[in-house]
Design goal:
globular
């Protein structure tokens, strides 16, 4: 079998860094988190909402970390947590001693993205090269990342 690529559509023409994507089967939508390099490393979340054939469209992106509030983002990862019916997004907060942070995003019934306030899960500074995966049997999210010169999992 061969894989057929669909059409292209631009999420953000200004430049994206470290994008991460997860599928929300309950809403039948893709949630994309990325660093907006054209806006001083703002963390943004967009929804890939309408797809027809080989075409896809995106919602307006919402901000989860804004440099005007002293928050820029590095190193992102996301996964869909089916027990909570939310997407977990983890990232490094560049302007807060590189703390490792997490937030959840949901798709509201009207198709918009809602999110909670970020929480710090490692304040030692240096949460980077991150990844997160949801383990259905355990109903837990597993996070792995590098802290300075050591690797940790939670």
């Amino acid at each position: 079998q061969s894989i057929v690529a669909g059409g292209r559509n631009t999420l953000n023409s200004g430049g994206n860094d470290v994008p991460t994507i997860s599928y929300n089967p309950d809403a039948a939508k893709w949630i994309i988190a990325y660093v907006d390099d054209s806006s001083n490393s703002i963390g943004r979340i967009a929804l890939a909402s309408n797809h027809s054939g080989n075409n896809i469209s995106f919602s307006a992106a919402t901000c989860f970390a804004d440099p005007s509030n002293g928050r820029r983002v590095n190193y992102l990862s996301s996964t869909y947590d089916s027990s909570a019916q939310k997407t977990l997004i983890i990232y490094q907060d560049r302007d807060n001693s590189n703390y490792a942070k997490a937030l959840t995003a949901s798709v509201a019934s009207n198709g918009t993205i809602t999110q909670n306030s970020p929480t710090t899960f490692d304040s030692s500074g240096g949460g980077r090269y991150m990844d997160v995966v949801y383990v259905p049997g355990a109903q837990r999210n597993v996070i792995v990342y590098q802290r300075l010169w050591h690797s940790y999992s939670r």
